[in-house]
Amino acid sequence: MQRVFNFGAGPSMMPLPVLEEIQRDLVNYKGKGLSVMEMSHRTPVYEAIIEDAEATLRRIMNIPEDYAVLFLQGGASLQFSMLAMNLAKRGQTMDYAVTGQFAKKAFEEGKRWGNAVAVTDSGADHYRYIPKIAPHQLHEDAAFLHITVNNTIFGTAYNTLPETGAIPLVGDMSSIILGKEYEVRKFGLIYAGAQKNMGPAGLTVVIVRRDLIPEEIDPIVPTMMQYKIMAKNGSMYNTPPTFPIYVAGLMYHWVEDQGGVKELERLNMKKAELLYDTIYRSEIFKAAAEPADRSPMNVTFTLRDEALTKDFLQMAEGRQMVNLKGHRVVGGCRASIYNAMPMEGVERLVECMLDFEKGKRK
Ligand SMILES: *Cc1c(COP(=O)(O)O)cnc(C)c1O
């Protein structure tokens, strides 16, 4: 069977060489006589897998030594609660930039724990842009400023990070991690669900400056939700998501083989530019995000009317391009073009858009 170009936002397309390596090693991992899925996490073979995944991620993201890397479960969504409970004292002020649906969810979870404040909110404008944050908007006693670095649903991204001074910046990078280079040092904490750009669902990566991990924590915080416990146990306080971590490790090596994050960023920018240029020039497709804040990963666009959208999606599907339907809150279309989407996929999409438009003009 021929593989399709999968433009889904997540779980999303993975590189074929990675899938093939998994397939080769699936039933008998490197001659050990068993699958990674069947291995105890407390064996030298598996320990080598998780250590290599961490070491490779550290290399490709240039993660400084004073940052811990945690491999957790619960999705990016659990981090909405976990980061608040660990970085803020109960009742403390926490600043949030509400720039999309996930940002809003993070903010709502923050409210359960402390004085979560939305320092900015572009909801009234359908989250079409990223509002600038001036330093004076932040609260002096805030535990952090939380931003969603790439807004997967609305197709916007922070192309420059806000200056937060002494206040730690916390970034949800679920849909842009490894797709664009960001300096880890600019953040106090970075988190990301794996299923966008790092492999299968079931794994969440947290990168946190060690001095932000509290020694003392409110005893109401469940053990499983304490960074200190997870860090102390090398993400193996309990059984970690062994298979997704293994696959993430393969993805990190793949990124390195492609020339690293910088090279993938270069390709991603080219892919995005081609697609956005096509949309900007079109008379029937319309970009959903403001150009200055457009996402290089999730390209959101609408058509003149909903009926046309359906026709277009159908045409694209006929050409082996799937999951282009926009999120239900935005409508229209969304092309998620993460690292694994080759230029060829974007070129095919553009060709389809041009053909569709030609057909409608007559
Ligand atoms: C997908 C996504 C989430 C939710 O991730 P889960 O792993 O499903 O909890 C959160 N934030 C962003 C930016 C996302 O893209």
Topology:
Blueprint: E1 5-6, H1 16-25, H2 44-61, E2 67-72, H3 75-87, E3 93-98, H4 101-113, E4 115-121, E5 145-148, E6 150-151, E7 156-157, E8 169-172, E9 189-193, E10 204-209, H5 227-232, H6 242-257, H7 260-281, E11 285-287, E12 298-303, H8 306-318, E13 321-322, E14 333-336, H9 343-361
Parallel strand pairs: 1-13, 3-4, 3-5, 5-8, 8-9
Antiparallel strand pairs: 2-10, 6-7, 9-10, 11-12, 12-14
Helix pairs in contact: 1-6, 2-6, 3-4, 7-9
Bound molecules: pyridoxal-5'-phosphate (PLP).
Outline the structure in words:
The protein has a seven-stranded mixed beta sheet with strand order 2-10-9-8-5-3-4. It has a three-stranded antiparallel beta sheet with strand order 11-12-14. The chain has a two-stranded parallel ribbon with strand order 1-13. It has helices at residues 16-25, 44-61, 75-87, 101-113, 227-232, 242-257, 260-281, 306-318, 343-361; strands spanning 5-6, 67-72, 93-98, 115-121, 145-148, 150-151, 156-157, 169-172, 189-193, 204-209, 285-287, 298-303, 321-322, 333-336. Helices cover 36% and strands 16% of the residues. By secondary structure, it is of the alpha/beta class. The mean pLDDT is 97. It is globular. 46% of the residues are buried. The two termini are 36 Å apart.
Spatial extent as radius of gyration: 21 Å
Biggest sheet details: 7 strands, mixed
**Would you report the number of β strands?**
14
What topology, given as strand order, has the largest sheet?
2-10-9-8-5-3-4
The low-confidence runs, each spanning 5 or more residues with pLDDT under 50, are none
In whole angstroms, how far apart are the ends?
Answer: 36 Å
What's the pLDDT, averaged over the residues? 97
Beta-strand residue percentage? 15-25%
The helix tally amounts to: 9
Distinct small molecules: pyridoxal-5'-phosphate
Percent of residues in helical segments? 25-40%
- Shape label: globular
| SS-based class | alpha/beta
N-to-C order of helices and strands: EHHEHEHEEEEEEEHHHEEHEEH
